[in-house]
Amino acid sequence: MEHDIFFSISQTPDRDGQIPSESEMFSSYFEQLQHADKLGFGTGWIAQAHLSTETQKSNSQPVVPHWQGEVGLCTDFTQLAMESFRKTKDINIGSAVISILASGGPIAQAERIANTVQFLSMMDDKRKLNIGFSAGRFEFMARPYGIVPRNSHEKAAWPALRGQIFMEASEIFLRLLRGDTINSDMIGKTILTRDNFRSDEDWVKVQNAYREFSNSEEMVDSIEIPNRYNFEDISIIPKQWNRAQLQLVAGTHDPKAQQFVNQFLPVKVFNLSITSPEVIDDTHQRMSQCYHESGGEWHRRDMPRTSFVFINDEQGLTPSQQSDAAKLEASEALEAYWNALEGTIDPSKVARAANNALIGNVEEVANQMVERFHRQDRIMAWFDFFNHDSKRVCRNMTAYMTKVAPLVEQLMEGN
Hints:
By secondary structure, the protein is an alpha/beta fold. It is built from 13 helices and eleven strands. It has helices spanning 22-39, 53-56, 77-86, 105-123, 152-157, 160-178, 200-213, 255-261, 277-290, 319-342, 347-356, 362-372, 390-414; strands at 2-7, 43-46, 92-99, 129-134, 190-192, 223-225, 246-250, 267-269, 305-311, 358-360, 378-382. α12 packs across α13. It is globular.
C-alpha cells in the first residue's frame, strides 16, 4: 500500500470561531509539507480554488451561500508547486484539482503546466508534477471566464452541457500538452441528445427551448452546440520539455469522460472520500480497458483513494480515550463541513462520510484500512480537514506513517 497526503489549505473558522490569517495558513502548509516529505509520503496533493468564496455569497446565484471563510487559498497551483518542490527533497506534488475552465481556460492552463514541468526538470529530473484536472467543483469560479449559458436552450441544458464543455476543454488541454498544433475546427463537436439527460422531462425542456430559439415547429432529436472555444492554429511554448515528469489525473466520475480523455494521453482518475466500493471497483474494471496504451498497464495505485483521517495518538490518553476523542473530532469536523456546504446538517451524509473516514486510535485506524482497502491501493490521506492546529496535524501524520502504516502491512501479511 502506498501513502499520499492531501492539503486543503482551507481558511475556515476553528472551534472558537477564529480564522487564521493567510500567512498563518501558508506557514502551516509548508510546515506540514516538509514534515510529510521527511515521513515518506509519496505525493502531496494540493486543493486549488479560484476567487473568494466569501464574496460569491453576495452573488445572485451563490454556489455555497453558507460557507464561512475561504474554501481554499491556493489560487495559483503552479507557483505553489514550484515553491513546494524547492522546500522539499523527495515528495512529488499534485493538484487536486485545477479547473481547466477557469484561470484563462484550457489553453492557458496547458501552457502554464508545460512551463512548470520544464522548470521542475531543471532543478530535479526525477520528481513528478501530478495534474489533477476537472471542470471545477464550484461553478462560480468559472463564470467570469464565460462558462455560463449563452441562450435559453443552453440554460435549460445546464449542468449536463457544462459536462460537455469540460470534454471540449479537455481535448484542447490534452492535445496541446501532447504537442499538437490545433485549431477549433479540429475539436470534437458538442451534440446534445436524450442520452445526455437523466430524464425525458429534462430533455423535453431543452427541446422546447431550442424550438423557440430557432423559430422551428418541429422537435429535434439532436442539438449541436457551437464551440465554446474558437481559435486558429495554435501550439504551446515550451515545445521541448520532459513529458515523463507529468502525470495527469481526471477529477470526474463520468465513465464517458474517463474514456474520452484517454483517447489522447494516459489520464488516471480520482475518487471522492464518499465514493462507494462498487463504483471504485467498476472504475478499476473500466480503466483497465480504456487506459491509454502509452501509459502501460492499469494498476490500482493509479486511482488514489481519498480518505479523511481522524487519528488520535495523543500522549496521556488510554486507547479507549483516544478512540472517543477521535470520534468526537470527526463528528464535529464533518458536521461543520456539510453545514458549510449545504446550510443544513444532513445526518445521512455525515454518517456516510464518517463510514468512509478513518477514525480512532492507531490500532482502530489500521484495522479499518485493512477492512476497506486493497493492499495495492494508494491512499490520499487528508489530515488538515477543519483543523488549524498544525503541530497536532503533524503529530497525526507521524502516528499514521510510523505506526499505522507498518501495522497495516503486518496485518495484511497475516491475512
